[in-house]
Amino acid sequence: MTERKRPKWADWADHIRSLDDPAKNFDKPEALDDLTIIDLSSRSMAGPYCSSLLAELGAETIRIEAPGGDQVRTYSPNGFTHRGTGMAYIQEGRNKYHITLNLESEEGRDILKSLVGQADILIETFPAGKMDAWGVGYEELAKINPRLIYTSITGYGQFGPESGRNQYDYDNVAQARSGVQYATGEVLPEGKTLEDMPYATSTKAGPWIAWAVSGTFAAVGILAAVYYREMTGEGQALDVSTPEAYERLNDYMLHWYADQGVINERFGNLDTCLWLYGFYPTKDGGVFLGGLRLEMWKAFVDIVGKYDEWGAEEWTTLAPFMKKDWQLKYQAMINPETLKYTSQELTMKSIEYAKKGRLAPITPVVAEIVPPWAAMHDEVWRDRGVFTPVQDPVYGSIVCAQSQWKSTETPPRTKWACRPVGYDNGFVYLKYMGYGPVKLRELAEKGII
Amino acid sequence: MPDVFKDYVKKKFSKPGPLKGVRVLEVCTLLFGPSGPSFLAEMGAEVIKIELPPAGDVTRSLNPFGWFYKEQSPMFMHINPNKYYMALDLHIDMGQQIFKELAAKADIIEFNLRPGVTRRWNIGYEHIKEVNPGIIYIEKNGFGQWGTYAEQDRPSNDGASQALAGYAWMSSFPKRPPLKQSIWICDYYGGLMGEVAVLAALHHRRKTGKGQFIEMSQTENIMRVMNWVWPYQQLAGKGVEPTGNRDQCICPADTFLCADNRLAALAAPGPDEFLGLCRAMGRAELAADPRFQEHTVRLQDENALAILKIIADWARTKTADDLEALGKEFGFAATRLHNAKDMNEDPQRRERGFVKEIDDPLYGRYVEHEFPVMMSKTPPKIKWTVRPVGFDNEFIMAKILGRNQTQIDELYLHGVLGKWKDMQGRRPPSDWDGQAGYIIRR
């Protein structure tokens, strides 16, 4: 690797790294190691994602599945499994204790109540009403443990006209219901039909973003509820609906329609609100170009050598560029220019421009649009601890996305990746219920665990 | 409905927010930065948004195709509710001193600046820690505070993160160019995850008295979401390919074109759900077909494409509303695609108070999204929207720092405190009466 020149503030970078490098995570305390969580999630990955975020911070997390295991263990591209487990669960089983319990049986529900009596937080994703029908809804459990923070993540919420629906919560359905999918996707050119171009339609995001967002909102709500509980001693019930959670990250669409009657439509790889802001083709793929200040847009025009020809000197405001017709006009002018370079060349031009361009240090944002394969093999992310593999005693070395943030005191960390179904029955039932091997055998024979 | 949520919306204002008593300083611009503190403000924290006078946050200029609401950016309004607006020049020594006085009385400080800027302004973590050892201090940006990309001084934003994480690349249809999301997902999601970090740190501080420094890169953060992608690439030894609206980890789960040329999404991986769907199609025998019976077998690309084709042909004979109704009847997940009109008109969103009207002293009545976690004892709530640059200076200076008007005027004179520029989005709306919204009236 060639020697690179470091910035003036390199001492700052070194100082911060010395304090928060994820390589030192295990020298540090854990923020949530005084909390016990019960994760009853079923079919939804929003719940396991939520409990992962808390388990990464040290919460003792008991993941309860029906005997035989939860359906989420099968979620995987092409049905691909590793030692019997799908890729989603191998990633979000992290740091948890995996036990089985049959909630269809009364004895199973009694055991759940005993566990709840010793827990701080419960997470569940059954269709609303299911837990109540089992006699383990919030009202019942709060009697046993008034400090309990009981969190439901569902498709339709715990109240409201649709909440009675007996349907599970799935990411793709939530994306469709959030309004985000509607406005995302390639534009169908006039005169074409979906039969000609089936891809020019409303398009969901590839990752499980709706589940991730509802799981993260739930985690934020839980931590706020913990704060309140520490002050007052009171637990409470939390209700998160996945489509609502994802919709909350939608921005101006609701207001625009309510005030102007405008339905926000797809605008391809441009942005209804922003200029310069979009994806553009290059010789070897594509880049994102961004410059939300006039000078950044001018700097980009300078980089591609059109500063004089396009009259950039005369521009005094970005406002007209955000209009739809201007966006389309300039997009058509930019495309042939970016196609002259590789993505890497354009990226380096932007970095160099910040040093010696006419508008330096101002420079546009240029970012190569990479496949996830390239992201995973990018040395910069690896250096920052994002893809550090976990040495799991059951599954071996597993790449786990982690260190999503760094901290000097209580950083998140991953200790193990996953566990097979019921793997921790021995430990957890002994620790929380005093059940030894004899009792566990008896419960297994009765189909309780 | 469980009793615990009975009259939830009606009784919202008889209960406190969960973060009552938490004070937050925000020095953030655009979306990634301000979104996080907004979530805290919605949960009852006192959030002081500090902008550089007189132009303030860049978001004040942004708009969809030229539409402003009462000369204000609708995005700025959406991203910044419930805050107090202060304009303080942090480039100058006296501004930095005032900031430190506020920081001494704050719990959380949030920044989104390039690496090293806070130190240059003498309000870096080390400076603030001296006056407030328990401070929780977070810096959010594109590439973190160290590492090759950070040290290249690269600017970044949401679109760059979608590009660099592989997120956009796996969000298109097969063989199509990568697709950008219509929302600024890496900004908003990063802001949200930042609050997981901050609130966990608050819990730790309660136990130990210790504060901390947190840094977050929005690209690293969005890669955490793409969970199954990474072990799949590692263990299968190949890159993840885009699959359009088909969920490649769950089958069937896709979006279908219906008889009325509208779209509906459905998912039915569970045995009961899949059987329900097959029955709804009048093809119960498919549930026992060896290609489709087991979920892991059904997920294999060849089988998945086969069953999705069967469903697609059937869906084309039903309306989107039919599909949704059949899902309810036969017990599989299904919805027609919602858009902005549905957001505004859907009774479910309204009755849950998720979509509601705000009654703001400066901006009047308008429709907004509520915080999406309903909390039975401590309902989060949006109360007011944004303010002009420096609008609440007097209130903050008097309430927190005990300054009188003469002292405050002195600070204006030196350019330490500032008020709005006479410019769209910075000044009050044109129908403002000169008083409405002021907490301390002059």
Walk me through the structure.
The complex is a heterodimer of chains A (449) and B (442). By secondary structure, chain A is an alpha/beta fold. Chain A folds into two domains: 18-250 and 383-445, Crotonobetainyl-coa:carnitine coa-transferase, domain 1 (Rossmann fold, 3-Layer(aba) Sandwich); 277-363. Chain A contains 17 helices and 14 strands. Chain A has helices spanning 10-20, 46-55, 87-92, 106-116, 130-133, 138-144, 171-177, 209-232, 242-248, 253-260, 294-303, 324-338, 343-356, 372-376, 379-383, 425-433, 437-445; strands at residues 36-39, 60-65, 81-82, 85-86, 96-100, 121-124, 149-154, 236-241, 277-282, 285-290, 365-368, 389-392, 396-399, 406-407. In chain A, the strands form four sheets. Chain A has a six-stranded parallel β-sheet. Chain A has a three-stranded antiparallel β-sheet with strand order 9-10-11. In chain A, helix 2 (46-55) packs across helix 8 (209-232), helix 7 (171-177) packs across helix 9 and helix 8 (209-232) packs across helix 9. By secondary structure, chain B is of the alpha/beta class. Chain B folds into two domains: 3-224 and 356-413, 3-Layer(aba) Sandwich (Rossmann fold), CATH 3.40.50.10540; 253-342, formyl-coa transferase, domain 3. Chain B contains 18 helices and twelve strands. Chain B has helices spanning 32-42, 74-79, 93-104, 117-120, 125-131, 148-151, 158-164, 185-208, 218-225, 229-236, 271-280, 295-298, 301-315, 320-330, 340-345, 347-351, 393-399, 405-413, and strands at 23-27, 46-51, 83-87, 108-111, 136-141, 212-217, 253-257, 263-267, 333-336, 355-360, 364-369, 373-375. In chain B, strands 3-2-1-4-5-6 form a six-stranded parallel β-sheet. A three-stranded antiparallel β-sheet of chain B has the order 7-8-9. A two-stranded antiparallel sheet of chain B has the order 10-11. In chain B, a hairpin with a 5-residue loop joins strand 7 and strand 8. In chain B, helix 1 (32-42) packs across helix 8 (185-208), helix 7 (158-164) packs across helix 9 and helix 8 crosses helix 9. The mean pLDDT of chain B is 97. Classes of the chains: A alpha/beta (449), B alpha/beta (442). At the A-B interface, helix 1, strand 3, helix 3, helix 6 and helix 7 of A face helix 2, helix 6, helix 7, helix 8 and strand 6 of B. Strand 14 of chain A pairs antiparallel with strand 6 (212-217) of chain B, so a sheet runs across the interface.
